[in-house]
Amino acid sequence: MKKAIRDKLLLGWFWVSGLLILVILLAIIIYLIWRGGPFINSQFILESPRGFPLGTEGGIFPAIKGTLWLILLALVVSFVPGLLTAIYLSEYGRSGRLAEIINLLVQSMAGIPSIIIGLFVYAFGVVTLGWGISLLAGGLALAIMIFPVIVVSSRDALLAVDENYRLVANSLGVSKSYTLYRVILPRAAAGITAGLLLSLGYAAGATAPIMVTAAAVIASSSGALLEPVMALPYHLYILFNEHLSLNYAYATALVLVSLVLLLNILALLLNSLQERMSKQ
Amino acid sequence: MNAVELIDFNAYYGSKAVLQNINVEFSPNSITAIIGPSGCGKTTLLRSINRTAEMERGFKSQGDIRVLGKSIKEVRNVSALRRQVGMVYQTPVALPLSIRENVLFGPRYYGVKNRSDLDAITEKSLRQVALWDEVKDRLKRPAAQLSGGQKQRLAIARALAVEPRVLLLDEPCSSLDPASTGLIEDLLTQLAEELCIIIVTHNLFQARRIANETAFIMDGRLIEKAPTQKLFASPDKPETRGFVSGLFG
Amino acid sequence: MQYPDTEFKEKIISSIIISAATVSSLLLLAMLIFILRESWPIWSQIGVSGFLSGSSWKPLNTPPEIGILSMIVSTMWVAGGALLIAAPLGFGCAVFLAEFSPRPLAAILRPVINMLTGIPSVVYGFLGAAVLVKFFEVKFDLASGESLFAASLILAIMVIPFIVANSEAALRSVASEYRHAGIALGVSRQYLTLRILVPLARKGMLGALVLAFGRAMGETMAVLMLAGNTLRMPGSWFDKGEPLSALIALELGSSTPGSFHYQALFAAGLVLVLMVIAVNIGINLLFNRLQKRGDDFI
Fold first, then answer.
1. Residues sharing a CB contact under 8 Å with residue B90, sequence separation 6 or more, in sequence order
2. What is the third-level CATH fold of B4-244?
């Protein structure tokens, strides 16, 4: 008898856990849409903040621009080093000593709190190199933040490519870089791109590192490297913390979440495309 | 002159000896089969010849291998060696490119650019493996669409496109149907007029069908090598007799 | 055909690749060394134990009082509390996905969990502050609903997806022979899961917890908006506190570069990093030691 009851309780625990998580996500999305949706219109998206105090009226266009500039810069700075590191780990190093060390270092980087990265770039870029609070510093901080993500996802995409291709290419006497260029990279491209999109989503939502290196309450976000920028996550924080506009805070949150989810969904699609290709 | 010679050749993975004291010669313009129980080092022997075995961790070798008279250890450019020694694997592998680009994968690397040269190489290689008529209208299509037997013939064409002098095959027909196997055996017999062909096979009938000479390897040692008829009909060594017995009354 | 002189070109390409990989990875070390350098005066003048055990943070006084004990306690409390809440739910959901969930439900649940990891921490913090804290204030008639508990709750939601994903992977990688054996014996699936599968997946599941703990320790925005940000030592889970990450985020901008205050913030940052690294390495070492003992079930 006791066993049957215990089994039922356990089953209940498992089911409740699963459903609870489903409910939480739905609740978040629905609540955001409900509270923030009504305030999203073309004016909100395309105009700058106005009103007194600033932000209680108008729109969030400079924040959108700023976020886009930041993630673009982060991508540009970290894509090539990240991909090269991944190529090393999958094609040249594989199991050597150096590869193990690099793997460990990259893995550790992924665990570094993003505020610490902000701390470093603050001291290094903002203060020592004299950039001040700037797009450049924020982009660099985000680049460091997403570097391990790019390395790991690219490395996994490269490793997933059929090993037989490398064997065949080797026996013909062609070089590794030729094989990479003609076979391996094209084959892994979908997975690599998916990793990039995920990184962009991750960077778009990061607040702590840009809070101390790049973000300003109000700025034009024109793309000037040494100027501060507005950014969606920081704008959300300010709108709420400074009690400027709860409604606009919800709307900003909705815009930010939509951007990130869009990038994540694209990445998911690309990943399943990659998997289908590999099964051919 | 022998096309390929192994002289006192030993191979190790870590501390385990995979090949011991191999002394064997392979004649040009003929087919030599290598037979033996599983795991006896046949594949390692092949991979040692084109120096792809050393890419595995822990691989060490002693002794020498000579290809066309030159020691493979002294080759300045390993790439050049691998061009001269073509290799076909057990699993038919088509590179994720078109049929034409599969064939031209090697030649493009080696600098062939001229359009008509490329076309000529494509046609010649595909004709050599009797694929030309089957695929000439769909050269630009992905090679992945070919059947297993066709992919394997394509793999041979790919290796032939860089004009090797030696062709190594590691159980090339083990995953193919009898019809494809027959096709490949015919084309190997034809190619043997120009190349030294070394084929590892589990299929003793196949060895008997196409090989001029057969070598029997067991536990990493070369037990016996002789003209095929003799090896099967009246082998010298008892181990050989034990392996091929029961087949040929 | 010629032999292109690719040996040389290939050597250049591989050197570039190797150097890029090495230099990028050294970035981590560069960051740590830089932070150590910036914070050096603190270590040499106040010393490690003084800094870590001092519970008074008044860096602008003369003489400055710099002790981060309250912040360390807040960090551990918030993160530990988050794990307390997240572990049962996370493990339960992982077991659900791996063993008990009907296929179509699992096919929905997995992407959902994936999406949860994508929601930015500032949104979690915002919702927690706008909804949860308000709720506490109304329900319990408080002047301010912020507390370590509120932060733990939101952090728990943030780390559950990591726990679920890693634990489910660990459970799935348990060889199916064990499942077949259990079914053949006629035990209930619950019994099979708890007594056989979970112990086998122990390593992965604990690893998931460790990762979640590290993540919770380093999280900034959610705790910034929910933990209350007082510099006092918290006395209970329902008190306010200021974890290390919030301290740095709030005070860095207003500190004067080069001042004692500035250096102290770097010292706090170094402590946070080392805590996270220690947690990760510590558990890895523990596992390796257990594995060496020949414990069959890991």
1. B170, B171, B172, B174, B175
2. Rossmann fold (3.40.50)
